[in-house]
Amino acid sequence: MAFAPKIITCLIVLTIYLVSPTKSTIQCGTVTSTLAQCVNYLTNSGPLPSECCVGVKSLYQMAQTTPDRKQVCECLKETGKEIKGLNTDLVASLPTTCGVSVPYPISFSTNCDSISTAV
Protein backbone atom coordinates (compact mmCIF):
# COMPACT_ATOMS: atom_id res chain seq x y z
CA MET A 1 0.00 0.00 0.00
CA ALA A 2 2.87 2.43 0.71
CA PHE A 3 4.03 1.89 -2.85
CA ALA A 4 0.88 3.45 -4.42
CA PRO A 5 1.47 7.02 -3.09
CA LYS A 6 5.02 6.91 -4.45
CA ILE A 7 3.77 5.94 -7.91
CA ILE A 8 1.13 8.67 -7.83
CA THR A 9 3.72 11.23 -6.75
CA CYS A 10 6.06 10.13 -9.54
CA LEU A 11 3.25 10.38 -12.10
CA ILE A 12 2.34 13.88 -10.94
CA VAL A 13 5.97 15.03 -11.13
CA LEU A 14 6.37 13.45 -14.56
CA THR A 15 3.18 15.08 -15.81
CA ILE A 16 4.28 18.51 -14.59
CA TYR A 17 7.70 18.01 -16.15
CA LEU A 18 6.33 16.92 -19.53
CA VAL A 19 3.62 19.55 -19.81
CA SER A 20 5.25 22.76 -20.95
CA PRO A 21 3.59 26.11 -20.32
CA THR A 22 1.22 27.07 -23.11
CA LYS A 23 0.29 30.54 -21.90
CA SER A 24 2.43 33.59 -21.60
CA THR A 25 2.86 35.39 -18.33
CA ILE A 26 3.74 38.64 -20.13
CA GLN A 27 0.96 41.16 -20.73
CA CYS A 28 0.92 43.59 -23.68
CA GLY A 29 0.83 46.49 -21.23
CA THR A 30 4.16 45.32 -19.85
CA VAL A 31 5.66 45.13 -23.35
CA THR A 32 4.39 48.61 -24.19
CA SER A 33 5.56 50.24 -20.98
CA THR A 34 8.94 48.50 -21.10
CA LEU A 35 9.65 49.89 -24.57
CA ALA A 36 7.92 53.29 -24.22
CA GLN A 37 11.28 55.07 -24.08
CA CYS A 38 12.03 53.86 -27.62
CA VAL A 39 9.13 55.48 -29.47
CA ASN A 40 10.75 58.85 -30.27
CA TYR A 41 13.85 57.11 -31.58
CA LEU A 42 11.82 54.65 -33.67
CA THR A 43 9.82 57.46 -35.26
CA ASN A 44 12.96 59.44 -36.18
CA SER A 45 12.03 62.02 -33.58
CA GLY A 46 15.06 61.79 -31.35
CA PRO A 47 18.28 60.05 -30.39
CA LEU A 48 18.42 56.57 -28.89
CA PRO A 49 17.99 57.02 -25.13
CA SER A 50 19.84 54.61 -22.87
CA GLU A 51 16.51 53.83 -21.16
CA CYS A 52 15.30 52.33 -24.45
CA CYS A 53 18.08 49.74 -24.49
CA VAL A 54 17.50 49.04 -20.81
CA GLY A 55 13.90 48.24 -21.77
CA VAL A 56 14.93 46.07 -24.73
CA LYS A 57 17.30 44.05 -22.54
CA SER A 58 14.71 43.77 -19.77
CA LEU A 59 12.04 42.53 -22.17
CA TYR A 60 14.47 40.00 -23.64
CA GLN A 61 15.19 38.67 -20.14
CA MET A 62 11.46 38.44 -19.35
CA ALA A 63 10.65 36.47 -22.50
CA GLN A 64 12.49 33.20 -21.91
CA THR A 65 9.74 30.72 -22.81
CA THR A 66 8.23 30.08 -26.24
CA PRO A 67 4.76 31.32 -25.17
CA ASP A 68 6.32 34.50 -23.76
CA ARG A 69 8.30 35.19 -26.92
CA LYS A 70 5.23 34.62 -29.09
CA GLN A 71 3.22 36.95 -26.88
CA VAL A 72 5.87 39.67 -27.05
CA CYS A 73 5.94 39.30 -30.83
CA GLU A 74 2.16 39.66 -31.10
CA CYS A 75 2.12 42.63 -28.72
CA LEU A 76 4.87 44.40 -30.66
CA LYS A 77 3.04 43.90 -33.95
CA GLU A 78 -0.25 45.19 -32.51
CA THR A 79 1.31 48.14 -30.73
CA GLY A 80 3.45 49.00 -33.75
CA LYS A 81 0.35 49.35 -35.92
CA GLU A 82 -0.92 52.06 -33.57
CA ILE A 83 2.26 54.18 -33.69
CA LYS A 84 2.32 56.51 -36.66
CA GLY A 85 5.59 57.07 -38.49
CA LEU A 86 7.57 54.06 -37.26
CA ASN A 87 10.82 53.62 -39.15
CA THR A 88 10.75 49.87 -39.84
CA ASP A 89 14.52 49.77 -40.42
CA LEU A 90 15.13 51.22 -36.95
CA VAL A 91 12.59 48.81 -35.46
CA ALA A 92 14.29 45.82 -37.12
CA SER A 93 17.75 46.85 -35.95
CA LEU A 94 16.81 47.93 -32.42
CA PRO A 95 17.75 44.67 -30.65
CA THR A 96 21.17 44.59 -32.32
CA THR A 97 21.68 48.30 -31.66
CA CYS A 98 20.99 47.61 -27.99
CA GLY A 99 23.31 44.57 -27.88
CA VAL A 100 20.61 41.89 -27.85
CA SER A 101 20.72 38.94 -30.23
CA VAL A 102 17.23 37.89 -31.31
CA PRO A 103 17.10 34.71 -33.44
CA TYR A 104 14.19 35.90 -35.60
CA PRO A 105 13.46 39.04 -37.64
CA ILE A 106 11.73 41.97 -35.98
CA SER A 107 9.14 42.89 -38.57
CA PHE A 108 5.42 43.37 -39.04
CA SER A 109 5.53 40.34 -41.34
CA THR A 110 7.13 38.03 -38.75
CA ASN A 111 5.04 34.91 -38.15
CA CYS A 112 4.86 34.92 -34.36
CA ASP A 113 3.67 31.30 -34.33
CA SER A 114 7.05 30.21 -35.73
CA ILE A 115 8.98 31.70 -32.81
CA SER A 116 10.48 29.36 -30.24
CA THR A 117 13.20 29.36 -27.62
CA ALA A 118 15.28 26.92 -29.67
CA VAL A 119 18.23 28.63 -31.28
UniProtKB/TrEMBL annotation:
Signal sequence extent: 1-24
Pfam families in the record: Tryp_alpha_amyl
The organism's place on the tree of life at top rank: Eukaryota
Domain Bifunctional inhibitor/plant lipid transfer protein/seed storage helical residues, every copy: 28-112
GO aspect biological process, one term: lipid transport
Keywords annotated in UniProt: Disulfide bond, Lipid-binding, Signal, Transport
Entries under SMART domains matching the protein: AAI
PROSITE patterns recorded: PLANT_LTP
InterPro entries: Bifunc_inhib/LTP/seed_store (IPR016140), Plant_nsLTP (IPR000528)
Alphabetized GO MF terms: lipid binding
The protein's role, per its UniProt record: Plant non-specific lipid-transfer proteins transfer phospholipids as well as galactolipids across membranes. May play a role in wax or cutin deposition in the cell walls of expanding epidermal cells and certain secretory tissues.
Family (UniProt): Belongs to the plant LTP family.
Name by which UniProt lists this protein: Bifunctional inhibitor/plant lipid transfer protein/seed storage helical domain superfamily
Protein's organism: Arabidopsis thaliana x Arabidopsis arenosa
Native organism taxonomy: Eukaryota, Viridiplantae, Streptophyta, Embryophyta, Tracheophyta
